[in-house]
Amino acid sequence: MRSALIGAAVVGVIAVGANYVTHTSPKAPINVTTVVHRVNPAIVDVNSDLGFSEGGAAGTGIVLTATGEVLTNNHVVAGSTSVKVVDVGNGRTYTATVVGTDRADDVAVLQLQNASGLSTVSVGDSSRVAVGDSVAAFGNAGGVGGTPSVASGHVTGLGQSITAFDDVTQTSENLDGLIQTDAAIQPGDSGGPLVDAGGSVIGMDTAASARARARSGAATDGFAIPINRALQIANQIEQGTSSGNVHVGPVAFLGVQIAIDQNGGSPGVVISEVIDGQPAQALGMQPTDVILSVDGVVVSTPTQLTAEMGRLRPGQTVQLTWMDTNGHHHGSSITLASGPAA
């Protein structure tokens, strides 16, 4: 199945195993007018500047506290050098700091600077969600901002597992335990709330697939991270507790961009660009050089390199090995810089 993580970049998602269930007698459709008034003021549009790659990403966020703590997807802010957030409730634009991320579960926490008095969401209990429940998905469809989009539907499955592949960064991630819905989630909705009939958030929009059109006539299969799981991760980030998957604080950076087209089957990760003034340039690395290992860990794919960098810290000195275009191997210590969000 092909589908997309629903930030700005198009991503492939393949369902690899799930408890897919189609409910034959869904509950009555959700009252969209009622939930819009409750939910819209507690949504933000998230705009990420991907400075080193000269691009941008747009998504959505869920306001958790009146002082500007926002929940969103990691893939909305991954690679960002700055983040601006527009609060739908008051129309103001804020600079946001990425407090921490969990790449494995696609969760990120932002903190809006100088925010106060913001409207916040009502949080539900995702453990009580059942197949057939009426839901609505909110978000920044198309990344255009303004009044949030809303799509109604039903829960069609629980405990879903998918593999998400990013055609831009050539990285992938496995997500599991997801809520599945037939609500028409769109690009830009990433990080937006999936709410129940009472307007309480029971999930965070994350991915969508066109597979359902052939199977059931629906336009998409949508996937959302259960809110209980997302808030558990957010709480760990707030407490400043890093782990194997959770990264809190600044991200370590080599100062390279990775080639989209890797050498299939060849060892290492191919560099497409070496960024001026960053550690890799100081070592004399060049585009088309191949990174072989970082801190003694062999990296064979962009996903492995990204994961390894997520475990390191700015200012840390590690051993790097690479191969140049002539096939010569090099090894040197390198002090990592502070880079874009994970």
Short note summarizing the structure:
With 342 residues, the chain is mainly beta. The protein has helices at 32-39, 74-77, 212-216, 227-238, 279-282, 302-310, and strands spanning 3-5, 11-20, 43-50, 55-63, 69-72, 82-87, 93-102, 107-112, 134-139, 149-166, 172-181, 193-195, 201-209, 221-226, 246-248, 251-253, 256-258, 269-274, 290-294, 297-298, 317-323, 329-335, 337-339.
End-to-end C-alpha gap: 27 Å
Work out the count of structural domains: 2
Number of helices: 6
| Biggest pleated-sheet summary | 6 strands, antiparallel, barrel
Q: Which CATH top level class of the largest domain fits? A: Mainly Beta
- Structural class given helices, strands, pairing? mainly beta
For the biggest β-sheet, the strand order reads 9-10-11-14-13-12
Number of strands: 23
Instruction: Tell me what portion of residues adopts beta-strand conformation.
Output: 35-45%
Secondary-structure element series: EEHEEEHEEEEEEEEHEHEEEEHEEHEEE
Can you tell me the residue ranges where pLDDT is under 50 for at least 5 consecutive residues? Answer: 1-24, 211-219
Mean pLDDT: 85
Helix content: 10-25%
State the CATH architecture of the largest domain. Beta Barrel
Stated plainly, the CATH topology of the largest domain is called: Thrombin, subunit H
